Amino acid sequence: MVKITQVTAFIAASALSVAAVDVCFYSNTLGCSGTAGCCNNLAVNLCCGPAASGLGFSIKYIGLPDITTGQAWSGDRCSPASTGIRTFQNGPGDRCWTGGGLRAASGAWTFGTGGRVANSSNTTSTECQGFNAFKYSDAQGIEQTIQIGGGGPSFEELQALYVAGNLSALDALKDN
């Protein structure tokens, strides 16, 4: 009986250790809408940031595993602890945090659901993942995704196309 419990706990822990979550910083405070910069496939306890100055008014955590929490900071490297925002976005599933006027500059996810803001006092820029995806709503209001990197346009270039209203250029680059 004890061995079955130990094996089950080991399998659950192993599955969580390979889990990844998409963390997206949105420009709008209304329900994770508008344009967004995302850290797709973000590993546990890895910081996503810094967010561009026009983003972070809401954050969507996509694919949170069970017994995990999405977290955010107003500081740009998931630190210091004093800038932690208690988002209380517990898994499993997709969760949207709306800041109510607060702006998050960085975010992460971790194990546990206590709403505690985890922090590493030695977080450096090399420990943060930058945006690797851009999200926008097309002319039909459907959210689209464009991968960033690999010699393609940067987040800033994609945002400029959106601001200019050049949805046809964005549509030519979309992934889905």
UniProtKB/TrEMBL annotation:
Key words of the record: Signal
Signal peptide: 1-20
Name assigned to this protein: Uncharacterized protein
Organism: Panaeolus cyanescens
Tree of life domain: Eukaryota
